[in-house]
Amino acid sequence: MSQTPNQPEFAHYQPGEYAAEHLRITPTTLSDGRDFFYLDDEPEYVNGSRTRVLDDPRDLDYRFAPHLNAEGVEVKYAAPQMRRDPLTGDWIPMATARMNRPITAGAGATAKGNPLAARKPGDPYQDGEVPDTDYDVVVFENRFPSMVQVPGVPNEVRYVDGNPLWQERPAAGRCEVICFDSDENGLPADLPVERLRTVVEAWAFRTAELSAIDGIEQVFPFENHGEEIGVSLAHPHGQIYAYPFIAPKLETELQHTQAYFERTGGNLLRDLMHAEIDAGERVIMRNHSWVAYVPAAARWPLEVHVQPLRDGILTLDQLNDAERWDLAQMYSTLLRRGNRFFDKGDGKGMDLPYIAAWHQAPVRDARRENYRLNLQFFSFRRAANKIKYLAGSESGMAAWVSDTTPELIAQRFHELGPVDIAD
């Protein structure tokens, strides 16, 4: 396999043939010490005839430096902490610094500029995170993380008020932002498949590297899209959380997949996928490597699960080149059809609010071998002018009540395009 000249090497990420020839990853460090990566797919940057700006022009304090409080007293960096709920066993990260993060979307907007946009020379807002005036895809550590590993802070369990009922320890994870494109007014659904292929590579790259960090138990790439979802920055972007614990949703799934394996010797996610394929009615898309279906027990008004057809894939970095291309195609098609799902009467659809959540096998837990990579895509919009609110039963008891049926969701998707989307 030939390598792009001067393509940097990483300790755990290994590019496939396409990425080695047609993508370039350029690392740098922001002025406060955070990691930053350009992922370029434009040939002039890939071949090195043009280079990205690496120096952050801002004069930011070191991210973990002490600071002065309102009384002018120097205080240490407020490292995020997490406490364990004795009733559920869930770890709850608590990060007071996030109260100060900029918000550019919605009625509560606090910032005029967009920190995720490329730098604009002469613009009065110059606190953007991207040093260059253009980019393809970038990934960087969140400036206001809910979890972060702070040098010199021991990852030890303490007890709130000295009572062993309440465990507390540092929220020693990592939070990253991934920007899909430099057009701050664009939509992920409008991006070309080639750009989404770069996004897929970014997911694989960061999964490989983050999984190797000491203390990380789960790597979770996800995308929140739409003001109704609560997105605070209006820009096509997603996030990647590296948890120092297994998140409750995945823990529940691992309990069921492991119990299924011990009872039957099978893989529950694989068998669910094949059962949906055999039933046929709820399968909404399929190409050479992936299948998308509305699960038989869907709870959201619009819900789609996506799985790779090949067995043995636990995480995104295990996908081969063909599977990464097919994923980019399927994700693009899913986003575009999602935007047409609800009809406002003009036939144009709408910008669908959604969450796209990558469920990957845990990093170290032995149950990982009986799990399987899958994407869970959903929206709480239940009509063009209605939202499903999580009220007493859902929020209070996690007892879901669906407003539709999986078959009706699938039927609507079938109206929007063919099941077979393979090139």
TrEMBL record:
<dbReference type="GO" id="GO:0005737">
    <property type="term" value="C:cytoplasm"/>
</dbReference>
<keyword id="KW-0299">Galactose metabolism</keyword>
<dbReference type="GO" id="GO:0033499">
    <property type="term" value="P:galactose catabolic process via UDP-galactose, Leloir pathway"/>
</dbReference>
<dbReference type="InterPro" id="IPR005849">
    <property type="entry name" value="GalP_Utransf_N"/>
</dbReference>
<keyword id="KW-0479">Metal-binding</keyword>
<comment type="similarity">
    <text>Belongs to the galactose-1-phosphate uridylyltransferase type 1 family.</text>
</comment>
<keyword id="KW-0808">Transferase</keyword>
<keyword id="KW-0548">Nucleotidyltransferase</keyword>
<dbReference type="Pfam" id="PF02744">
    <property type="entry name" value="GalP_UDP_tr_C"/>
</dbReference>
<protein>
    <recommendedName>
        <fullName>Galactose-1-phosphate uridylyltransferase</fullName>
        <ecNumber>2.7.7.12</ecNumber>
    </recommendedName>
</protein>
<dbReference type="Pfam" id="PF01087">
    <property type="entry name" value="GalP_UDP_transf"/>
</dbReference>
<dbReference type="GO" id="GO:0008270">
    <property type="term" value="F:zinc ion binding"/>
</dbReference>
<keyword id="KW-0119">Carbohydrate metabolism</keyword>
<feature type="domain" description="Galactose-1-phosphate uridyl transferase C-terminal">
    <location>
        <begin position="254"/>
        <end position="371"/>
    </location>
</feature>
<dbReference type="GO" id="GO:0008108">
    <property type="term" value="F:UDP-glucose:hexose-1-phosphate uridylyltransferase activity"/>
</dbReference>
<feature type="domain" description="Galactose-1-phosphate uridyl transferase N-terminal">
    <location>
        <begin position="78"/>
        <end position="245"/>
    </location>
</feature>
<feature type="region of interest" description="Disordered">
    <location>
        <begin position="110"/>
        <end position="129"/>
    </location>
</feature>
<dbReference type="InterPro" id="IPR005850">
    <property type="entry name" value="GalP_Utransf_C"/>
</dbReference>
<dbReference type="InterPro" id="IPR036265">
    <property type="entry name" value="HIT-like_sf"/>
</dbReference>
<keyword id="KW-0862">Zinc</keyword>
<feature type="active site" description="Tele-UMP-histidine intermediate">
    <location>
        <position position="237"/>
    </location>
</feature>
<dbReference type="InterPro" id="IPR001937">
    <property type="entry name" value="GalP_UDPtransf1"/>
</dbReference>
